[in-house]
Amino acid sequence: MSRRLQRSPLTFQVTLTVMALAIFALAMVVGFGFYATVQADSVSLERQKILFANGMRDRIAAVDREQESIAVWDDSVINAKAGNVDWMIDNISVWMYSYYGHDRVYVLDAADRPVHAMREGNVLAPARYSEDEPVLLPTVERVRRLIREPAKENLAGGPVKLAAGDLVELDGKPAILSIMPLVPSSDRVIQAPGSEYLHISVDFITDALLAKIAGQYLLAGARLLPLSQPVGGAAIPLVDSRGVILAYAGWDQERPGSALVREAGPALIGGALLAAGVLAFLLRRLRRASSALQTSQAEAQYLAFHDTLTGLPNRALFEDRLRRALLTASHETAKVALLYLDLDRFKHVNDTLGHPAGDELVRQTAARLQQAIREVDTVARLGGDEFAMILIDVNDIRGAEDVSEGLLQKLQEPFKLADDQVFVSASIGIALSTGPDADADDLLRKADIALYEAKKNGRGRYQVFAGDMDDLLLRKRQVESELRHALNGGTGIKLAYQPIFAADGSTILGAEALIRWGHEVHGGLPPAQFIAIAEERGMIGQLGKWVLQEACRFAVGTELPWVAVNVSPLQLRDTGFAEQLAAVLAETGLAPGRLQLEITEGVLLDNNDTTRAALAALRRSGIAIVLDDFGTGYSSLNYLRRHAIDKLKIDRSFVNLLGRDESSAAIVRALVDLADALNVGVTAEGVETEEQKALLVAMGCREFQGHLLSLPLEPAQLLRLAGLLPGNDSTPAAVSA
């Protein structure tokens, strides 16, 4: 008994010792965990501040680069000093707002008087500059000192950049300010020292801008914090050149240490209640939780920079790699080539085979592109069927062309999609870095322009960016501006009318309205050219409405049975087009049965709900629908049946070969028979010889249009030809086709 009593204190002491050791060990673990959590959060916060500060510096530098793209330009000097307001709107102010997002732009003359002002895309009276002048004046004077005494301002020696920037506060909001003199880009323009005009750009620092910067580093909740609001640790001050804090940029702090503790918390609480023997198990749980969190973060990091469909780098990772490649290339002799690629007629695959087939086509395309380039290069999916490739260590453009030729050949091989074998092609735009100052955004822009040219020139090919493509883009913008002016009360745009005859060659059944533009500088512009610009720039609705109004006004004052007007697919995609056309008919008084709308087969191929509803509404109102250029596109009998077309127009390419090519004759005969079977009318376009007309009559065609019968005519000439005006002339002078 005494021995048992003697052992009990010992057992109790051992138990206490074990418990104490366990509690001590657990306390050490908890203490170390808390310390590690605080340290991890602190280190992470400092990294976040550095990343955000770098992002702000990059944006300030970007504003400077963007402004330099128009400040160092012969045309800027010439047009600003000439007071060319329209040019400054298109190229110096509104361009900076619409393309780069600069909120305010001013142009000052050599005496610092305002000659041009823009705010948020709206051109204002130059005198409005006075509202911002007190804030901008110190930086303006700084630039003037740099221009007058560059050596004194640059005490460190080296080249002087005649520009200045700062963070300022305008209208109670912080903003990035950059001021540069307008200077020539070549020796063609001579500018006397001291006569420089100044270009002022202001980019407000908004929540959206901060969110864009934060998104580059996977930070969330970026926002602008005013001085009156309490500021936490996850914030950096926005300081001007005088050291005055204008505001704070804040974000939601990432706390990796705290997240780890929350994940492992239940296990730690359970470990505190268990005996010392369970401590090892808790440590293993902690390691597993840590590993799971790291895996989750790694997956999130991967998803943030990779495309989920193909596994390729996405746009964010692509742009980062492109900038890194250009930075490396600036220190070496090799160049960087950027290839911009997209599949031709990808929408056709989606519409005919379904979106799953389209997704599979994108996956197979991505695999082929990866196989066709080196491991050191990058291929990325930018969205939809668009891909981009970064080729490093390229000596000249020939190397990029060789890769492009290989890619085109690889993509010409058939794709296996479900039970179908599909053949597609691709178009590629190529841009090559030009030197140590190459800019990623500029290289992307050039590759995009080259891709557009490749598609315009026939698809299934590659196109290298050339300097004159920028001139072409500028010319397009000029044509766009002049077209807007012409539609808003200007002159030059008019309609010609090409009559459509019956089989006797003298009876006029109707006329097709054809738009013409006699440009003051470029002469007669081809309709296809300025119509394409109108579609690209969102003006086709306005242009199409003008054509409809003019054609209806002309027809209502004549005895012509009907007039035909061509309609763009983009007009039919407008949900209000049918109502707009009804308003035009009501305004002009033309009966719906005297109007025919000519559409292309692409409209039927589009096959969306809006188009189908518009065509159905137009036919119900009595307007006839004519399918133009039939036989050259992708339409099927199912499309013709579904949309109930009123008339087919046989394309001139088939008519032109009649009498010379038996296969063309067979096609035309089949098209006429098809129209007869569908109980719709048929018109032959491009009839130029009596032999063609005789063959068409024999096939059963009863409507003809072409130069054999009449060229496009002025309205009065058409009426004289139809015998509706005095002085009937069977061969009036035609309007240029």
Automatic annotation (TrEMBL):
Keywords, alphabetical: Membrane, Transmembrane, Transmembrane helix
PROSITE patterns: EAL, GGDEF
Highest taxon of the lineage: Bacteria
Parts forming coiled coils: none
InterPro entries assigned: Biofilm_reg_signaling (IPR052155), CHASE4 (IPR007892), EAL_dom (IPR001633), EAL_sf (IPR035919), GGDEF_dom (IPR000160), Nucleotide_cyclase (IPR029787), Rev_trsase/Diguanyl_cyclase (IPR043128)
Record-annotated membrane-spanning stretches: 12-35
Entry keyword Transmembrane helix: yes
Domain (EAL) ranges: 476-726
Molecular function GO terms recorded: catalytic activity
One Pfam short name: GGDEF
Domain GGDEF: 334-467
Name of the featured protein: Diguanylate cyclase (GGDEF) domain-containing protein
